[in-house]
Amino acid sequence: MKCTTAAENSNPVPVKPTNFYAEKTQSYVYLKTSLTIEDENSSELNGNQYKFLILQAMKETLGQVGAATPVDLLKVFGDGTCIIRVPSRSTEKIWAALTLYGSTPSGKRCAFRVIHASPFLLGLAFNSRNHRDATS
Amino acid sequence: MAATFTSAAFNLTTLVQTDDKISSAISGHYFNNALTVILPGTNSLPETVSECFADQLAYQLHGLPVYRLVEVPFIHAFVKNGLIYMLSANTQLDTHDCVAVTPDGWLILHLTKDTYHELGLEATKQTHQQKNSDTYVVKVNLLASYFKPGKKNYDSTLWCLKNRLDLVFDFHIAWEPKDDKVCSSSVSAYFLDKCAKVERRCLDRRTQVLTSLPCPKVQADDPEGTSGQSCHFQEVFEWIGAVACGVDMTVKDEDTSYTSSLCCPEPSQNCPRCCLFQVSGFITPGTILKVFKALRQYTTAHTDLPPASLTVHGFQDSPIFTNNCPHHLHICGDNLMTFVYLPSNQCWLYRAVAS
């Protein structure tokens, strides 16, 4: 939705327009996710390994077609958490796929937990619930 | 097509930096958890900005009974003679009862169904989301002329809060007195013997210097980037988020594009150094207004740099967000305001609310 109005300013010069733009839907949802793996320190995983496990999770539940949904791994934190970006229309499916994923290809039990979800990346910078912030 | 998962409201307004709408937007956003300042072209935060936090005092009250908030001495000393900000701490909006006192004198009780029915105070009309989640909002106007001892409304409110249920909460509290001679710490002295413990809530600050940061080009009069000379405002907002979260946005080669395809929106310019300042705590709108003005002074003196931005992060679990609008939490309760300082005294104001 877009509407533009030229607001009248009481000052004679300069007249500044007030533009108002609104977006009803956001194209992405950002998820802050933690991964725990049995007998392994998940904080040692690098980006590629993390992404591989996310794709494995999607393949297992959603199949090849579902796994083709573009998922971006934006950042991996030192404590085994990460920020991923998913298209907002497939968020439920990907969240479900992550939740249902139970063991890594090497047979170890593992679990993804979604800690924080937001349609704005800026929303993940701080979490007012535990007073800990993302970049720590 | 599946419906979107979270509901979100997102808009952008172009304003003049001295517009009254900016100060009313800031002062209407009562409960602020954190600030993010992105300041390109400098290694450190200007002193004028860090000084703004010097007289910001916030406290945490432990185990305060809610009926203490409708007592006459409290209303006279703090609600009438200043701006009081109180928000229940460690309560979650979707599962717990939440309480807030706003500077315009409203006591807001955001209650679950059980508490509401036991309490016996009348709720305001439920919104659609409140009906779905079975929550009720009770609003008490502490400044109303009829709200005083001896009147029915006051007596029944006090009795319900005191005798019906043992409503006890932890609170974040800050107070800005009208009178400059009064110290804002008197609010903590008042509650010392009324609750279990009063604690000073310090601000948690962090400054980072980012080098070789790609910054999107922005034009005030072309937010949608139709001319190709500037970026779309939504991409700029995502970029601000990526900087705040510490996401690497350098141009990807074959190896790293496997993990992420996010990069800085085009057209962009390289910024050799950039200061990222983040502060969290219980920050009052008065402080934010000072920060906004200090940054405005700084940016008008440095017009050749990529635009600076100031983001205000509201509490997720606040029962209201801006201008007393009811706030709802389904998946996430983000309520954000971002100001982007643009040349020729213009400013973009983003508002983003999700539930």
Automatic annotation (TrEMBL), chain A:
<dbReference type="InterPro" id="IPR038085">
    <property type="entry name" value="Rnp2-like_sf"/>
</dbReference>
<dbReference type="GO" id="GO:0030681">
    <property type="term" value="C:multimeric ribonuclease P complex"/>
</dbReference>
<dbReference type="GO" id="GO:0001682">
    <property type="term" value="P:tRNA 5'-leader removal"/>
</dbReference>
<dbReference type="GO" id="GO:0005730">
    <property type="term" value="C:nucleolus"/>
</dbReference>
<dbReference type="GO" id="GO:0033204">
    <property type="term" value="F:ribonuclease P RNA binding"/>
</dbReference>
<feature type="domain" description="Ribonucleases P/MRP subunit Pop8-like">
    <location>
        <begin position="28"/>
        <end position="101"/>
    </location>
</feature>
<protein>
    <submittedName>
        <fullName>Ribonuclease p protein subunit p14</fullName>
    </submittedName>
</protein>
<dbReference type="Pfam" id="PF20976">
    <property type="entry name" value="Pop8"/>
</dbReference>
<keyword id="KW-0819">tRNA processing</keyword>
<dbReference type="InterPro" id="IPR049128">
    <property type="entry name" value="Pop8-like_dom"/>
</dbReference>
Automatic annotation (TrEMBL), chain B:
<protein>
    <submittedName>
        <fullName>Ribonuclease p protein subunit p40</fullName>
    </submittedName>
</protein>
<dbReference type="Pfam" id="PF08584">
    <property type="entry name" value="Ribonuc_P_40"/>
</dbReference>
<dbReference type="InterPro" id="IPR013893">
    <property type="entry name" value="RNase_P_Rpp40"/>
</dbReference>
<dbReference type="GO" id="GO:0001682">
    <property type="term" value="P:tRNA 5'-leader removal"/>
</dbReference>
<dbReference type="GO" id="GO:0004526">
    <property type="term" value="F:ribonuclease P activity"/>
</dbReference>
<dbReference type="GO" id="GO:0030681">
    <property type="term" value="C:multimeric ribonuclease P complex"/>
</dbReference>
<dbReference type="GO" id="GO:0000171">
    <property type="term" value="F:ribonuclease MRP activity"/>
</dbReference>
<dbReference type="GO" id="GO:0000447">
    <property type="term" value="P:endonucleolytic cleavage in ITS1 to separate SSU-rRNA from 5.8S rRNA and LSU-rRNA from tricistronic rRNA transcript (SSU-rRNA, 5.8S rRNA, LSU-rRNA)"/>
</dbReference>
<dbReference type="GO" id="GO:0000172">
    <property type="term" value="C:ribonuclease MRP complex"/>
</dbReference>
